[in-house]
Amino acid sequence: MGRENRSAEEALNLLRSRLCNPNFIFKPLSDSPDSNYSKLKFLVSSSITEACNNSLLLLGPRGSGKIAVLELVLSDLLLEYPDTLSVIKLNGLLHSDDNCAFKEIARQLCMENQLLFSKMASFDDNSQFMIAMLRECGLAHKTIIFVLDEFDLFAQGKQRLLYSLLDAMQSVTSQAVVIGVSCRLDADQLLEKRVRSRFSHRKLLFLPPSMEDLQRLMEHVLSLPVESSLPHDYTVEFNGKLKNILADERFKEIINTYLNSDSTVNCLLRFLFRAVSYMDLESGFLSLENFKTALSNIQRQPKQECIKDCSILELYILVSMKRLEVKEQNSYNFNSMMKEYKTIHDSFKTSDYYAKNVCLRAFEHLLKRELICFTDNRGYNQSIEFRAVKLLVSSVELHQGLKSYRSCPSILLKLMEH
Amino acid sequence: MAKEKEETPQVSRRSTRYSLSNSNTNNGIETEKLNESCKTTLDNLLFGQEPISLDDLLSCFPGRRVQILEVLRHLGPINSSMPPMFIYGSASTGKTSVVLQIFRHLNRPFVYVSCLTCYSPRILFESILNQLLLHKKNAANGYSSAKKCEKPSDFINLIREALINVIDRLNGNSGKMSTSKSKGVQVNGRMIYLIFDSFELVREWDKSSTILPFLFGLADNLKMPKVGMIFISNTSPNMYHSSTGYIDPVPVYFPEYTEEELRQIFMINQVNRKLYSSFLDIVLRPFCRVTRRVDELSTAISMLFKKYCEPLSDVGVVPNEEMKRKLFSHLQPHIAPSLNEIFRVASQSSLESEANQETRRKGSGRKSVSCGDFDEIDFHMSTSAKYLLISAFLASRNPATLDASFFDSTGGSDGRKRKRKSSEKTTGKKEAAEQELLMKGPGTFALERLLAIFQCITSVGEDLLDEEDEVDDGLRVGGGSNGLMSDVLLQLSSLCNGNFIVKGASCPLEGSTRYRSTVSEELALKVPKVMDDKEAIGKVIKIDTFVAIVEDLKLGLYSIYNQHMLEQVGGLFLVIL
User: Fold this and answer.
1) What is the ipTM metric for this complex?
2) Is B259 exposed, middle or buried (0-12, 13-18, 19+ CB in 10 A)?
3) Distance CA B514, CA B496 (A)
């Protein structure tokens, strides 16, 4: 029993580390000759061997594996051409400021070439250093690959970095590849004219994989390797059960409902991770139940949850505001809401009528929950009662939330239906 | 000795509300234990208290069983990597406590930063680095951070370096530790976790548009499988907007406690469980309709429990049915008023006054209890400040055009009559004005107007004093004398600091600063009440003026003044007559 448990834990650990390792995931997807992996590898390796400059963009939605595929290609190329390749990585979130970007380039170049990096170097120094390094590397037939993640963010501002990079690549002496990675499909439209004219306009599009590919991927990720430290019969049984699950119609339905909203690989991985983490360590096998719970836990409805969290008084406030909106009162605040609340109380004689300061506190809670918010930023020095507010839930959502609320006063439901 | 000093803040740093309330009793013992076990400095990354078992953990948090198990599942067995996790739920649902206690249970190393205390990127980054580099701010290093780091680009390099260092040490550590297992607390596993608390606040930061995706994508950026990220937030993941989006972390939801769970929470650590449970039977349901937040409920309920126990001579007694009924009828009159009171912490003065009120209350019977102690302001204010507050209130709530009729004794009555006629004709107009008043709130006024009203009020006070032939005991505020004007300005600025009056934007035409009173009607009415008898409201505001205000109230211009308040004002008015 103890041994069973241990191998189950080992299997769980293996699956979890696989799911967190993009290199493992994207390996099997890049076999075919017309995959992005092959195209990218061909482009980069040809510009290394032919000692020319190149530039291209990798575009695709978030989580479609642009960086992962690029990493795979780069690690392969580093093995193939160990001495003639150096990679500089920048990220738009970190280095969108030109000054910062040049500094980072200089730092990474110094690291690559065992030079001393000076923190005090100015913008000019750094940019001249970069151009000099490009020339030197070109003469030594070394290729520098610039990877610009979040490429669209580099296109903000004056685009000096992009210009000087692409401009340096116009000369015959340099030997560099600029690879931009972005989730904005119109990333190249953001470029200035002087930059765009120097850009090659090669684009690789990363599309979500087909259902068959995903099916293959899931099998590849979730099945245990036969030759490993795990006991053989356990592995066989595990894989057999997994096959059954994957073939199950109900399972396909679960996956379909999940991927309806977002069908990128990364999204699927998060779901699989959740399901795997529910694996029962006692039995040591995945079950369909795991996937079901994962689906219900990962597909959340935050607004509904928020309404369920509210107290009765907060619901009254929400409904009062809803009524004000129905009345087409274009702007309202706490005081007008209180008036509405009072008329509800007066006409229906509810048991939940509280003093103004208690309501104000509940109102503040709603603001914190972000079910309501101030309509504008004006009037910061006004007290909360007087600032105009609006609802952040639609009436349908509110109605649904009230219906599923455990002990919702019937009067509120009645008010919502009118 | 030095170690002891190091360790004690450690405990307090990692303790949340929950652990503070729980660990008070055995704190001494635990710190001692800590000092013994504090051999390697890596221990600083642990929770810093004796690990607890899973059963203890689950029993500590009633109603959080599902969530605890879910978080544990996500963290997984020892040394297994995980994608970022996003824990969310409304305030006071035990998010932070649960996560920290889970780490106490697991005894794995972690770095905890709260975006509430680390209120800017620089402080956040430096705090993370300090913890990772095991750097403590003290007098010797001038309370400076280990590394200066402002930009995310520097931070990513520094944190990568620090993390590699820590993980290396953890690797070496666990090998070494397995041979000598006798130590009490030891670091478990080779993963390090970064916990970001109050993450919703990052949205308000200056550069949130880049910082937010950066922090969400930190795990992707670092590409270190041995680093786990946990975000704790008040708001759900869909409230984080970003222009190009980011990879969603895996959500874990903490719902608000249900009534039954709240009951279990309040039953923890109760001495007389039977008595307390019969108390909760009465109190919990009505309060849950208002709020289900543990922190607010506990303050409100603890005050009521004292009331509940009042008739009892022995608190340890087990109540029978009859006694329960008796206690219930004793408590019942207190429930409704306390429901209508926001849950406040009793200030010093009100605590004092409670003692002498006690005797009075017992004599006067039940009725006075409900409104007795809410009619007073529980802070001290100088007389001129009170006058100033009232004049600011009047200036804010009345249109400037009515000033003349209010404060000028000759022209007053004519203006009022005219006004009444017009308002009777056009009720629609009145409603619009009402609506506008509701929406706009208190208006702004120039300093000159405030001072003029102030002068009017105080001079009336003086006149009245003269008329009634009372001894002018060196009236605090000189009505006409310019010498005291600076004093009044001083008072004004202190009222501004106290947020009773807000300095608004300056008027574009005049260029002078405009003020606005933020005082509510209730408070404004309390102010004259607490002045001593000689300065009752009739002397403060000229009777004429007061009539004018009351008339206007009847006209409905101020219908936000509810009926209750009208009675109050009327009552006061009668007192004066």
Assistant:
1) 0.92
2) middle
3) 12
